[in-house]
Amino acid sequence: MKVIITGSTGMVGKGVLLECLEDDKISEVLLINRTPIGISHPKIKEVIHKDFTNFLPLRDRLSGYDACFHCMGVSSAGMSHEQYYKLTYIVTESLANLLYELNHDMTFIYVSGEGTDGSEKGKSNWARVKGKTENLILNKGFKDAYAFRPGVILPEKGVVSKTRLYRIIYQLMYPFFPILKKLKSVTTSSKIGKAMIILVEKPYDAKIIRGQDINLLVSKYNF
């Protein structure tokens, strides 16, 4: 299985990447990053691309893949509507349009967030934009597509958040991780990656995947 990952320098994307590297079913991982990730592995192919609103220059590099794990995301804090819309919806639209043209028989998984507004009519700007982005992916026509809406994510295997505030929060929460992991809605960076790999081969009826669904998938298939 050959997969594409965006956002692999972030906490969720890095967790997904590590699971792909450890899974024998994954033969190749193409990373699309703005800056080098600094990991050397036989499975990894990395392309450095600066303009994520236009993936057309990568056309010759993106054919022949079975799945895309789109883990790239930004916080809306301090951003105008236009900025957030561009970095969330426009980026995803550009990637999805090209990948559908080249690999319409692939599975596309988009990392969204808990609280996303699929109706696109709510008061929260970020939730509406995320909802519009989810709807784009789910209705594009890929062989299969999912929107992941994890709530609380506990980092594992040395993965850390790029956001300083979140790093502090995780440090304070660390003693309580064993308790938090027992909650159905709380998942981990490792389980997110494992669930994505599972869904490429084992389709799931629900297309909005929450923390509880992630945990159930991993538990069901003894991953």
UniProtKB/TrEMBL annotation:
The record's subcellular location field reads: Membrane
Q: Where does it primarily localize?
A: membrane
For this protein, the record's Gene3D superfamilies field holds:
NAD(P)-binding Rossmann-like Domain
Q: Which PANTHER family match?
A: NAD(P)-BINDING DOMAIN-CONTAINING PROTEIN, OXIDOREDUCTASE HTATIP2
Report the protein name in the record: NAD-dependent epimerase/dehydratase family protein
Where's the NAD-dependent epimerase/dehydratase domain?
3-114
Specify the species.
Tenuifilum thalassicum
Q: What are the TM regions of this chain, as residue ranges?
A: none
Q: What is the lineage of its organism?
A: Bacteria, Pseudomonadati, Bacteroidota, Bacteroidia, Bacteroidales
Output the Gene Ontology cellular-component terms.
membrane
InterPro entries, per database record? Epimerase_deHydtase, NAD(P)-bd_dom_sf
Alphabetized Pfam families for the sequence: Epimerase
